[in-house]
Amino acid sequence: MADITRRFGWRHLRSAPTAHIRHHKRGRLAHDGQGLSFWYRSLSAALSEVPVDDRELAMAFHARTADFQDVTVQATVTYRISDPAEAANRLDFSVDPDTGSWRGAPLEQIATLLTETAQQHTLDVLARTPLAAALVDGVASVRERVATGLAAEPRLPATGIDVVAVRVVAIRPEAEVERALRTPAREQIQQEADRATYERRAVAVERERAIAENELASQIELARREEQLVDQRGTNARREAEEKAAADGVRTDAEAARKVRLARAEAEAARETGGARAEAQAAWLRVHGEVDPATLHALAATRLAENVPRIESLTLSPDVLTGLLAKLGRPEGGAGA
């Protein structure tokens, strides 16, 4: 929309570069071009603003296929007004000289023209196409047919409109039909998924079996090695016992031999000692047999005196002294002396 300002009864218009302005003053064309800026009087001016930029027109409509199935077509048409003067002559692009807003709805007229033309060619294509083919190849065929039909439409060039591009976004059936069409594919996908799941489970089971067999083989090998270890330990224990018994036998024999030698030495020493003692005793007896009895008695008294406790003082009566001397074999007179 043009930008209009007021100054002392005059109006100033400033348009955008993408808008074509036509200014008629008293029936004559005063200004004609894009991006204009000028002063005018509202009572004598007739203004038209025609957009010349590319515009997108989204459309959606229903159609029926050859097998009587309803589908929804979503498309977008890009167009531009290439001849603003012709468009302003055929459509009402006039604007209010005071506000700059359109007095009519020219873009809605263009949208209706393009939508109905595109819908007409779309219905013609889909009416001869089954639903399955329309869902598979319908987008391309509808786009080509609509583009060809719009290019051949005589009203568009006459109105100064050029179609830049046609895009068909989607062709979709009703929700129930779409679910029904999806069911076989979903079932097939589910079957493939189940098959993949079963194969994965089978592989997992096979791997678990291999792992179990490896574990069992490991346990068997471990048990066999433990058996060998037990046998080896028994052999080592028996060998150790035999070696210990042999060592004990050697030690016992050595101890016995040592004891025998010791006993023999002790016996020999005892014989030698006994012989010496016997000889000493025989010599002692022989010496005592040759000595006077009185000397023996004196020697016996001396020995006795050595073994009796110490006596500090001794008092002998005459009778005791007499008896003692008599036992020593001396005469009484000697004792008195």
TrEMBL record:
<dbReference type="Pfam" id="PF01145">
    <property type="entry name" value="Band_7"/>
</dbReference>
<feature type="domain" description="Band 7">
    <location>
        <begin position="33"/>
        <end position="197"/>
    </location>
</feature>
<dbReference type="InterPro" id="IPR001107">
    <property type="entry name" value="Band_7"/>
</dbReference>
<feature type="region of interest" description="Disordered">
    <location>
        <begin position="233"/>
        <end position="252"/>
    </location>
</feature>
<protein>
    <submittedName>
        <fullName>SPFH domain-containing protein</fullName>
    </submittedName>
</protein>
<dbReference type="InterPro" id="IPR036013">
    <property type="entry name" value="Band_7/SPFH_dom_sf"/>
</dbReference>
<feature type="compositionally biased region" description="Basic and acidic residues">
    <location>
        <begin position="237"/>
        <end position="252"/>
    </location>
</feature>
